[in-house]
Design brief:
alpha/beta, pyruvate-formate lyase- activating enzyme, Arc Repressor Mutant, subunit A, 9-stranded mixed beta sheet, 15 helices, 15 strands, globular
Length: about 375
C-alpha cells in the first residue's frame, strides 16, 4: 500500500542509506492493488536466489554509505519463512556497514501472523512489522478481496505485541464506495484500541488494471465525490490526532518517536538500494529500476535508469517536502537551487497562501495537515516546467 515508493528523491543527503527488498508475490490479488506483484508462487524460490545474486552484484551502487534502515516490502513478504529475512540481513551485513541500522521492517498480511511465524520472526533482527489490515469491517475486507478477517487482524496485532514486538504499524484504506464514515469510524476506533505505534491511512485511488477499475467501467461501483472524500479524511485526522498520533506525512500518523524511519528517508532524499523485480534505487544522481518481468529478472536482464536534471532535483524536493508536515525549507532552496528559484517559488505559492492552503512561517512553506488531501494539486502548481 505504500504508493509513495514511486517518488524517488535527490536532495539533502547524509551518510546513511536505505536497503529495500521487493518480494513481488501474493496468494491473492487485492481488488485495489496496482503494485507489481504475481500470484504465481512457483517462481518464488528462484526469484529469492536471484535477489541474493543481485545484492552481491549491485551493492556498490551505494557502497560508500552506512545502512540506516532495511525494509522488506511487496507483494507479501510474510509469505517467506522468517529465516529468509535474516539470510538477506546477514548478507547485507557482509556488504555494508550495518552498525547504525535502527529499523528493519517487514510488511505482512494478518493471516500469515501465526504463532509459529511470530516465534521464528523473534529469532531474527526484524524489529518493526507493517500489517496490511485495510479495514476492520468484514464486508469491506471481502469487497477488497482481502484474505483475512477483522478478527484475524486483531489477533495478529496481539500476537506480535505479546511476543515483544514494540513497533507495529497498520494500514487502513478509506474512501471506498458503499462503506460510509460509520464503517470508517469503527475501523479507526479499533486501530486506536490496539494501541499500535504507527497508522497509515490511504484514500482509495482506483487505478487502471485493477479489479476496482473494471467494476468502475462496468458501473458496478463508483468513486466517491470530493465532499465525501474530505469528510472521511478529516474524520481520520481528527480521530488519530485526538488519540495522540502525530500527522507527519500525507497518509502517515505516528506516536512520538515512531515515525517510519525508512519511508521518512525516502522523503528526505536519502540514497537507497532496491533489490528485486520492480524495485527502484537512487544514489543521488542516478535513478534505476529493475525489470518487472520475473523471467527477465531471474535471467539477469534487469536494469533501466535515468540521470536527474537540475529541474528534476528541484521538483522532487518540492513534492516530497510538501507531503511532510515540516514542508519546504526555504533557506535550503536558496542555498541549493539559488535565490532566484526561491523567490519564484514564494511568488507561485502566494495564491495558495491567500486561500489558507499554504502557510509561510519562519522560512518554512508548508501545507496545513487539514489540507493534505489537496496536496497533489498544490504541488503540481509549484513545479518548475
Amino acid at each position: 500500500m505504500l504508493f509513495f515508493f514511486l517518488f524517488f528523491l535527490c536532495t539533502f543527503v547524509g551518510d546513511m542509506a536505505g536497503l529495500y527488498f521487493h518480494i513481488p508475490f501474493c496468494k491473492r490479488i487485492c481488488a485495489y492493488c496496482d503494485f507489481f506483484r504475481s500470484a504465481d508462487l512457483r517462481c518464488m524460490p528462484q526469484t529469492i536466489e536471484a535477489m541474493h545474486q543481485e545484492l552481491g552484484e549491485s551493492h556498490r551502487f551505494i557502497s560508500d554509505r552506512k545502512l540506516h534502515t532495511i525494509y522488506f516490502g511487496g507483494g507479501t513478504p510474510s509469505l517467506l519463512h522468517p529465516s529468509e529475512f535474516q539470510r538477506f540481513i546477514d548478507q547485507a551485513a557482509g556488504l555494508f556497514d550495518c552498525s547504525s541500522v535502527e529499523e528493519i521492517t517487514i510488511e505482512a498480511n494478518p493471516d500469515d501472523i501465526t504463532s509459529e511465524f511470530v516465534s521464528e520472526l523473534r529469532l531474527t533482527s526484524v524489529n518493526r512489522v507493517s500489517l496490511g489490515v485495510q479495514s476492520f469491517d468484514d464486508e469491506e475486507l471481502k469487497f477488497m478481496n482481502r484474505r483475512h478477517s477483522a478478527e484475524e487482524a486483531v489477533r495478529a496485532v496481539r500476537r506480535l505485541q505479546d511476543s515483544g514486538v514494540e513497533n507495529i504499524t497498520i494500514d487502513l484504506i478509506f474512501g471506498v464506495d458503499g462503506f460510509d464514515e460509520n464503517v470508517l469510524r469503527s475501523s479507526v476506533e479499533r486501530a486506536i484500541e490496539l494501541d499500535v505505534q504507527h497508522i497509515s491511512a490511504y484514500h482509495l485511488t482506483i487505478e487502471p488494471s485493477t479489479t476496482f477499475h473494471r467494476r468502475l467501467t462496468r458501473g458496478q461501483m463508483r468513486e466517491i465525490d470530493e465532499r465525501q472524500s474530505e469528510k472521511e479524511y478529516l474524520l481520520v485526522e481528527k480521530m488519530l490526532r485526538e488519540a495522540g498520533y502525530e500527522h507527519y506525512e500525507v497518509s502517515n500518523y505516528a506516536r512520538s518517536g515512531f515515525r517510519s524511519k525508512h519511508n521518512s528517508s525516502y522523503w528526505q532524499g536519502v540514497h537507497y538500494l532496491g533489490i528485486g523485480p520492480g524495485a527502484h534505487s537512487f544514489n543521488g544522481e542516478e535513478r534505476r529500476w529493475c525489470s518487472q518481468s520475473i523471467a527477465d529478472y531471474i535471467a539477469g536482464r534487469r536494469y533501466e535508469g535515468e540521470r536527474l536534471s537540475e529541474q528534476d532535483h528541484f521538483n522532487e524536493y518540492v513534492m516530497t517536502s510538501l507531503r511532510r508536515a515540516e514542508g519546504i525549507d526555504l533557506d535550503f532552496v536558496a542555498s541549493r537551487f539559488g535565490d532566484g528559484k526561491c523567490a519564484k517559488l514564494i511568488a507561485h505559492a502566494e495564491r495558495w497562501r491567500e486561500q489558507g492552503d499554504l502557510v509561510l512561517n519562519d522560512r518554512r512553506l508548508y501545507i496545513p495537515t487539514s489540507k493534505f488531501l489537496i496536496s497533489d494539486s498544490i504541488i503540481e502548481c509549484l513545479f518548475e516546467v
